[in-house]
Amino acid sequence: MTRIKARLKRRNTFLFLGLATVLFAMPAIGSACDNEIRIAPYTLNLRSEGTVVTVHTDVPYSDVDVYSVYLGDVAISAWKADDRGFFVAKFLMDDIKAIDGLVLNDYNTFQFVAVTVSGQPICGEAEVMVIDRGPARLPGDVLVPVLE
After folding, report:
1. Could you report the per-residue pLDDT of 18-30, keeping only the tens digit for each?
2. What are residue 120's phi and psi, to 5 degrees?
3. How far, CA to CA in Å, does 46 sit from each of 14, 16, 57, 85, 130?
4. Residue 140 — very low, low, confident or very high, per pLDDT cuts 50/70/90?
5. Does residue 41 have a cis bond before it (omega within 30 degrees)?
6. I need a surface site. Which of 22, 23, 29, 113 has the fewest CB within 10 A?
């Protein structure tokens, strides 16, 4: 099992580096990141007990090579189609929280990158507020988890 994970990680790293090379080599005319994405949660609390960060895209589900999908330098964990047939990516929140260079109490730009099954780059950006606070509670309150 460990060999399989290592091989998948190497493959994902190779795909990410290849995609990054393609995106950086694109002409400066127009934006390479023109896909619309929405990231949930909108505010990332480093002390939250959440488990996933979800990215909603404007890309048809069947167009995406799922093994090429990254948010920042974090590989995709799970995926699905939304009710309109668009691609939805899920990333482990602990991996997103561990990204180097996150700026606390400010908006951080997260870049979503992928490749279509035909080899075309997909890229989108969204801002997420990053905070480091415990859950807001009043004395006597019971902490109830919020389900997505």
Report:
1. 544 444 444 333 4
2. -85, 140
3. 29, 25, 24, 31, 7
4. low
5. yes
6. 29
SS3 category, 116:
strand
What token pair was written down for 77?
Answer: 């964990």
Fold of 2-24+32-131: Immunoglobulin-like (2.60.40)
Q: Residue 143: exposed, middle, or buried by beta-carbon count in 10 A (0-12, 13-18, 19+)? A: exposed
Domain map (residue ranges) of the chain? 2-24+32-131
- What pLDDT, on the 0 to 100 scale, is given for residue 134? 74
For the chain, give percent helix, strand, coil, nearest 5: 25, 35, 40
Q: How many Å apart are CA 135 and CA 141, to the nearest integer?
A: 11
* pLDDT for residue 16: 53
Helix (H) / strand (E) element for 43: namely: strand 43-45
Instruction: Give the number of other CB atoms < 10 A from CB of residue 43.
Output: 12
CA 38 to chain CA centroid, nearest Å? 10
Tell me 129's DSSP state: E
**Do 71 and 55 form a contact (C-beta atoms < 8 A)?**
yes
Model confidence over 60-73: pLDDT tens digits? 999 999 999 999 99
pTM score of the predicted model: 0.71
